[in-house]
Amino acid sequence: MITAGSARLSVVDGSMLRVTAPSIGPPLRRRERVSLAQARRVAVAAQGLGRRPPGEPTVRHLQKVVDTVGILQIDSVNVLSRSHYLPVFSRLGRYDRELLDRAAGRAPRRVVEYWAHEASYVPPSTHRLLRHRMQRAADDAWGGMVRAAEQAPALVDAVRAEVARRGPLTAAQIERSLGHDHPRERVEWGWNWSQAKRIVEYLFWAGEISSAGRTQQFERLYALPERVLPAAVLAEPDPSRADALRELMRIAARAHGIGTLNDLRDYFRLRPDDARPALADLVDAGELVPVQVDGWARPAYLHVDARLPRRVDARALLSPFDSLIWYRERTEALFGFRFRLEIYTPPPKRVHGYYVLPFLLGDRLVARVDLKADRPGGRLLVQAAWAEVDTGPGTPLHVDVVEGLAAELVELAGWLGLDDVTVVPRGDLAPSLAVALSR
Predict the structure, then answer these.
(1) Statement: the pTM of the whole predicted model exceeds 0.85
(2) Rounded CA gap, 226 and 228, in Å?
(3) Does residue 410 carry a pLDDT above 90?
(4) Could you tell me the pLDDT band of residue 176, with boundaries at 50, 70 and 90?
(5) Residues with Cβ < 8 Å from 152, sequence gap 6 or more?
(6) b/e per residue, 21-55, with b = 16+ CB within 10 A?
(7) Which residues have a Cβ under 8 Å from the Cβ of 4 and sit 6 or more positions away?
(8) Which of 213, 250, 301, 407 has the most crowded CB, counting CB atoms within 10 A?
(9) What is the spatial distance between Cα 439 and Cα 418, in angstroms, rounded to a whole number?
């Protein structure tokens, strides 16, 4: 048992670290040390990895994932799969993606979309905690949205009324209906929005319009909040800014298990001046205990209910937008794994590939693969496969890494409805991986 001020850290049943803190008393001032390996196991367990259910996953399993991670980031890149589907696969294995589509697109919705981390699915109860962000749309939304709303107030009213009258509607349907599809700018990455599109996005940011789901073409379906959010959530009064920030930090702390101030605030992209008082409140309440993680310069905070397994049996390919790794500074500090998204890097300058997924084995990131779903050919393409410095050919972990990765790639291909896994000979792990997959 370790004491920390008047709190006690103890191992329960040999598998769970419990922090017992008094309900009344001064803030904890001593920091106890946590090894880096312990911190990794806390983080992996807190994210619900390594506990795939037996049998076919159900909506209850999906709800468990949502409750555990608190947020699923959305991204439009579909070279492998839309990113919000992948974290669920990493935690449940082969599940029916329709479960998530129904959760976001049909009442009573289990997730709704908003700018939480980036564009994200969050539980409806979390959506109301972001109302303070909605109220700052004129200051925080992207400049093109704000300018469009300022320059065309009549169009703002018309878009709002059209969505109220006919929603759910896509932006293209709104534009056609109103006849306000202005000539579009031709710029990179498709940011050639019309005025109507900019305005409906501004109203979405401001919370005056919500998303009732996505079309098969990945277009948002805009509707009034009362047609999207559960009645109980709509009826709740707006929380105070301080209460909302504290609850967002509380959700982040549970999902991290252990993390620094920057780790926790990044989960919902909170400003430092907003996150610090909320963090202090959680420490004062005994929900978080300050600790020092070996090798970390900044203090960390351990959640009172954090699990510390003796080992974790996780085996997962992680989306670049998975909440375990999306904050690159934390990923490097926790796993010693430098990860950069190269989608926007010109091909000749890419180091590892276009859509690279780190491979988690146990409590470590041991490899990375550049993946593409060749849907016409029915193949999962491994366009490159790279080992980490201590998992390459000739190292003690190499065989376990190759066999685990091969098995996970087969699972992923099956989930995507692909018949085969093909390895392109690029990367130091590719030859061994090709052999393992050919058996």
Answers:
(1) yes
(2) 5
(3) yes
(4) confident
(5) 195, 199
(6) beeeeeebeebbebebebbbbbbbbbbbbbebeee
(7) 19, 28, 30, 31, 32, 289, 290, 291
(8) 301
(9) 18
Name beta bridge partners: 367: 359, 387
What average pLDDT does the chain have?
Answer: 90
**How far is Cα 392 from Cα 402, in angstroms, rounded to an integer?**
9
pLDDT in tens, 341-393: 999 999 999 999 999 999 999 999 999 999 999 999 999 999 999 999 999 99
Q: How many residues does the chain have?
A: 439
Indicate the pairing of strand 7-12 with strand 356-361: unpaired
103 near 109, Cβ under 8 Å?
A: yes
Query: 């209906």: which residue's tokens?
Result: 177
pLDDT recorded at residue 32: 86
Amino acid at 357: L
